[in-house]
Amino acid sequence: MLNKLYATVSRHPKTIIIAVLAITLYFALQLPHLRWETDARVYLPKGHKAILYDERVDEWFGVKDAVIIGIVNDEKSIFNPETLARIDRITRQIAALPGVVAQRPIDIASLSTATVFVGTDDELVAQPLMPRVPQGDEAIQQLKQRIYDHPELFVGNLVSADGSAAMIRAKLKEGQANRYMTYWQIKTLLDKERGVTPAWSGGGGDWAQQQWPDESTTTAAADLAAPEGWTGEVFTLDEAATAAATPAAPAPDAAASGQWSEADRQSWWQGQAAAAGDDNGDRFYLAGRPVIEVTAGQHAMADMQVMIPLLVLAIAATLFALFRTWRGVLLPLFVMGAAIIWTFGAMAVLNVPLYTISTMLPVILVAVGIGDAVHLMSHYYDHVLHEPGRPAPELVQDVMGRLGAPLVTTSLTTAAGFMSLYFAEMPPFVVFGVFTVVGIAVSWLLSVTFLPAVLGLLRPKVGGYLAKRRALRVYSEQNRLSRFLVAAAAALHQRRTLATTGLAALVLLGALGSSKLYVDSSWMNDFRPDSDLVKANTLLNERFDGTIFLNVVIEGQRPDTFKSPALLRRIAAMQENIADLPYVGNSRSIVDYIKSLNRSLHADDPAYSVLPESKGEIAEILFLLSVSGRPDQLDEMIDYDYRRALVTFSIKTDHTQDLKRIIDATRDFSQHNFADFDVDVNLAGSANNSYVWADLLIDSQTLAIVLSKVGIFLLALLLFRSAKIALFTIVPVTLTTLLIAGFAGLAGIALDVSTALAAGVAIGVGVDYAVHYIFRYRAEKRRGLDDLAATQATLRSVGKTIVFNAAVVTIGFAVLWLSQFPPHVKLGYFVVAYMVLSCVIALLTLPVLFQYHRRRAMTEVAVSAT
Fold this sequence. Notes:
CATH class of the largest domain: Mainly Alpha
Shape: elongated
Mean pLDDT: 80
Strand order of the largest sheet: 2-5-1-6
Structural class: alpha+beta
CATH superfamily of the largest domain: Multidrug efflux transporter AcrB transmembrane domain
Largest sheet: 4 strands, antiparallel
CATH architecture of the largest domain: Up-down Bundle
Number of strands: 10
CATH topology of the largest domain: Multidrug efflux transporter AcrB transmembrane fold
Number of domains: 4
Radius of gyration: 33 Å
Helix content: 55-70%
Strand content: 5-15%
Distance between the termini: 45 Å
């Protein structure tokens, strides 16, 4: 079958070239249709119980991801008329944005929408915390007193303890378009408050024109596309953009009557001109899960746009240093580039989204795709030097005849390594694995069709430098690399016992270190410490209770469950217990409201900021609350029939190791303290999703690594018809992954997405080295050479090619060290380590393994003869 393919290429080279160019052009034209998906929840399987339960919690309590805006004034504190007016103005502007949920005051958490209670012995009245912007010192002091008299409701939640910062939280509608558009609109609003013109890098793509997966987001995107100043690269501030980001029809004043008076509207508009250019010492910060997701996607895409050209330059320089001809540079680069275009073009055609992890796909394809081309070009130049007068088509056919089987085998084993990700539970990893396999297949196809077609039409030649040095001649031992490899083989042959002992020691060391591995992932680790997002997240966590949330849902079996004083006291105990843990800022529940209401009913006496003792007193408070205008804030804490309650813990970290301790403690408390109540306790929220994701990551990657080894072993068994040789195929990559994992464990480096992907590259690429070595070694043995001679002949030929391939991949990935996106930097370090170690281990262990195998076989023959 392969011979027919090569014969077709030889007979119709021009047709092959034209077809490849046409297909490449077609897929290149599809690239603008690629769409992004950065929602963190997509890392959980569709239909996963955590996602489904989150949706139910949203239905019950209206809990959604929120953009967090921090307003900080260290000079005057936020308690001055200008800053308070700015908070009020920004709140109203954000409420008017199409992508923001603004049906109730709780949808925009702010001083402007918060409610307090004024009570007597038999009456409660809900009043806006800040019905209007206070102007004088007396009015401002009254506002401060209202806030700090009810710290459980406002301090750390909407205002910092020292009064230097205020927080606004805006819930977003579902859909990718809403996240991106609202993010840019809010940035426009904040920059307008500062009096500066927004001009932010877009990171690649007109988000309003993407292929959105659902009708609601398509509609939202269409509504926003026309007026926005978003051009796909830079957000510019013009009249249309200003009108869109500074709405003409502000949201209703939900804190009061629900309608805006004309005076309010005029005052609001007058404030726009007064605000511009006058920062009043106010600083603005953006945080929250939607901001993290959008920023991560933009940084990843922007970084890829810089890294790919640098990667191409580095690979080109390396190829030129190896082959010293333009064809030796341009042809492998074309194969690499076309494979990337075909792969991403196929994603666009199939409407498969780009995830943040997908930005690493081009780099991975360079690593696994360039190998076939490098091997082919290296052998081509070997043959040209050995038989300089031979016609090009004959040379190419001879090369393909020798390399056909190894190239197919390495492509299959590499594909098997990545295809194991198909069984991962996380959709982005599945997509990554499947389309890496697509890229591998395309790289192989172009290497065995396009490259031979072009080389068959060109006059055989090598670079003058190589011709002079004859450094690539197959049987030359003048090459320094060849001499070194041959000497190493001789040394291993003479010291087999020492080499075997060394391998065993490495296995033990790797196993010891691997036992110390742990999973720890953090979205904040995806950004540089000096980035605006990290600074914002750090500051807001310092001054407020936290920026991510763990939701504890307690479900009773019947109405009025939460009128029980004993159950409420148990909830209060849980809040106190968990709040003492590191990184837990504070918590809020119906308990805090009942305490606050009890105090309000007793002339604001602090002594009554406690839970009432009897069910009757609690029922009376809740009754007064219902007849006095139940505040919408309670909808986030308890349902109308008091059967379900939500306790929200604010957390100051998203490191999954820390979240695990918090979640484990919460579950442990719930199991031991709610067992005597007829309630169910479940977890939800962004903190819980991160914890679940970390568990899935380790399980999925462990499964993927095991399956990849099994798949490679079975393929090698099928191809080599020997269980021992099939086992030898996976020994080098197994040792490599074990040693790197051991080093990571001993060094305290956590397993995350970058380290997991690097392991996939190690298996996918590292197995190629073993396959090429085994094919050539067996060929030399069939020629009648003994073990040492066969090993030396193998190292002279494919040994140096393996080193060349490893060098190209290593240099390519070393470019990632210059990345501004930390996950790419980490991937670069790990893949470089994997490539160097894979190459060295393959060239050192395989000779030892084959010698051991040969000696055992000879011993068995001798025993059977006697």
